[in-house]
Design brief:
110 residues; mainly alpha; 73% helix
């Protein structure tokens, strides 16, 4: 008897892809709002880049996860490693607060 049904990896990856796309769109919205709120003359010009910098990094990470999931679903990568993007997203989302703090600390715009 198999521990994992045949349909579970594909269902998990397709669901995770939708969730990660949602996270990516949320970060794109954060970048947009950071740039849209700095149109006043009273606000420093670099504030938008300063507050949006970590979100750019998160968008890149989410794009890589989506690409990895797509490659697994296409069959280009081994399907027995379907759990790798699941673990990557769980670890990233659980440590995102610390990663955000570190990125703000090393922010090149601040």
């Amino acid at each position: 008897m198999k521990l994992v049904p045949r349909w579970l990896p594909e269902l998990t990856l397709r669901t995770l892809r939708v969730v990660v796309i949602g996270f990516m769109l949320l970060n794109v919205w954060s970048v947009y709002t950071a740039h849209a709120t700095v149109r006043s003359e009273l606000v420093p010009k670099y504030l938008a880049q300063y507050s949006a910098f970590p979100h750019y990094i998160f968008i890149v990470f989410y794009s890589l996860i989506i690409f990895y999931i797509w490659r697994i679903l296409k069959g280009a990568l081994a399907s027995e490693n379907w759990w790798v993007p699941v673990i990557a997203v769980i670890i990233f989302e659980s440590t995102k607060f610390f990663i955000y703090g570190f990125l703000m600390w090393v922010n090149p715009f601040g």
